[in-house]
Specification:
single chain, alpha+beta, 3 helices, four-stranded antiparallel sheet
């Protein structure tokens, strides 16, 4: 009978420890995210073009730049005007949209 109470007590301690870990993880996540944010630089979008490289849109000091980013280098490709950026609406690239785009291409190829 004493073993049952020991198991319940150990289970209670384990639950308390897990609860403390959960609270600590939430607190840590909140503080780390606030450290990563910048007042002056905002990454608007990023697209991976290779395993170690990406193209990013970054807003710095009110100006928007198109950047090529690799492990060892960052290159400014172009400065993008906000008006040009806003007039382009980018379609969400989910499976349905990609499938429909490819089907339209195949229909066009067959008709030619």
């Amino acid at each position: 009978m004493g073993y049952i109470f020991d198991y319940i007590r150990v289970l209670g301690y384990l639950l308390v420890i897990l609860l403390l870990f959960y609270i600590f993880a939430k607190y840590l996540k909140k503080n780390v995210e606030s450290l990563r944010r910048s007042k002056y630089i905002e990454i608007i979008d990023s697209v991976a073009v290779s395993q170690k490289g990406s193209i990013q849109l970054a807003k710095v000091g009110g100006k928007t730049y198109l950047l090529g980013v690799t492990d060892s280098n960052i290159n400014v490709i172009d400065q993008v005007e906000d008006a040009k950026l806003e007039e382009h609406t980018f379609e969400k690239k989910d499976f349905k949209n990609l499938f429909n785009i490819n089907m339209r291409r195949e229909d066009h190829i067959e008709k030619d």
